[in-house]
Amino acid sequence: RREQCRENQARYRRRQHEHLLKMETDTATLRVQGVRTQTVWGVAAEFLGLFKHGISTATVATLGTTGYHSLEASNAQLDFLRAMMTPDVTDGSVYGIDALLERWRLYSLYHSNLDIELERLEMGAPNTVIATTRVSMTITESTLYHAFRHLFNGNASHSERLVAKLLGQHVTMSGSVRFGWDDTCGRVHSLEHSADMLTPMLKLLGNLEDVAFVFSRARITPDDNVL
Questions:
Q1: Pick from 96, 111, 122, 212: most CB atoms within 10 A?
Q2: What is the arithmetic mean of pLDDT over 200-222?
Q3: Mean pLDDT across the stretch 15-44?
Q4: 77 and 157 share a domain?
Q5: Looking at the 3D structure of the chain, how many domains does it have?
Q6: How far is Cα 149 from Cα 225, in angstroms, rounded to an integer?
Q7: What residues make up the domain containing 22?
Q8: Residue 133 domain-assigned?
Q9: SS3 for 20?
C-alpha cells in the first residue's frame, strides 16, 4: 500500500511538473505573439505617420541633385524603411526600399497638399494588417502637369475644358494600405496602397467619357497607383 501511495504521489508530481512546463510554454508563446502583433500594428501606424504628407515638397524638389539624405524628414523616412522593411519589400509593382521610396516621391509629386488620415487598423489574412485610410489632395497645376500631362496636348478646347473643371479642386478618396508581415525577421515584406480616385473624378467631370480620357495617358491609375 505504501508503494502504491508513493507511485501515485510520483505520478501526481510528474503531471504537476508537466502542467507547469506547459503553462510556461503557453505564456512564452503568447508573449511572443503579443510582441509580433504589437510590432506589425506599430509599424503600420508609424509608417502612416511618417508618410502622412508623403515626401515633403522641399525634399521632392531637391532629390534630383542632392539625394534622399538632404533633409531630416527624408532621413527619418529612409531610416524607418531600412529598419522595418525587408530588403526586397514590394508594393506589387517594384521591389526594394529605394524603388519603394522613389514611388512615394512620385506619389507626393502627383498629390499636392497630400494628407493620408488613418481611420482604423484591422487584421486581414494571416500575417497581414490592413489600414483603412482617407486620402485628400488638391489638384494643382503641378498635379496636372506631372500626372496628367497629356491634358496640355491634343485638342486644346477639350483639354482646356477638363483642366478648368479639375484645377484647384480638393479631392477626398477612400483608401487602404495592406502590410504583409514576415514572421521570420519581424519586418514588413509587402506594402500595397490603393485609393478610389475614380469616384471623385467622375463627380468633378460629370461623365465616364471624360474620366476615361483623363486617365488614358495619365501617370497614375484610377486606384491611385503611380505608373
A1: 111
A2: 96
A3: 53
A4: yes
A5: 2
A6: 16
A7: 1-37
A8: yes
A9: helix
pLDDT of 64 strictly over 90: no
Can you give the pLDDT at residue 40? 82
In our burial notation (b when 16+ CB lie closer than 10 A, e otherwise), range 190-225 reads bbbbbbbbbebbeebbeeeebbebbbeebebebebb
Residues 65 and 48 in one domain: yes
CA angle 82, 88, 94 (to 5 degrees): 105
Instruction: Kindly state the DSSP code that residue 226 receives in the 8-state scheme.
Output: B
Which three cell numbers mark 43?
Answer: 509599424
SS3 98: helix
The pLDDT score that the predictor gives to residue 126 is 84
Name 151's Cβ contacts closer than 8 Å, sequence gap at least 6: 144, 159, 162, 163, 214
Q: Which region among 28-32, 50-54, 161-165, 175-179 has the lowest average model confidence (pLDDT)?
A: 28-32
- d(CA 218, CA 224) in angstroms, rounded, equals 11
Instruction: Judge whether 201 and 100 are in contact, CB under 8 Å.
Output: no
How many Cα atoms are found within 13 Å in the side-chain-facing hemisphere of 34?
Answer: 6
List alpha helices for the chain, DSSP H: 2-50, 57-66, 72-84, 97-110, 141-147, 156-166, 198-205, 208-216
Compute how many other C-beta atoms are within 10 angstroms of the C-beta atom of residue 165.
16
- Give percent above pLDDT 90 in the chain: 55
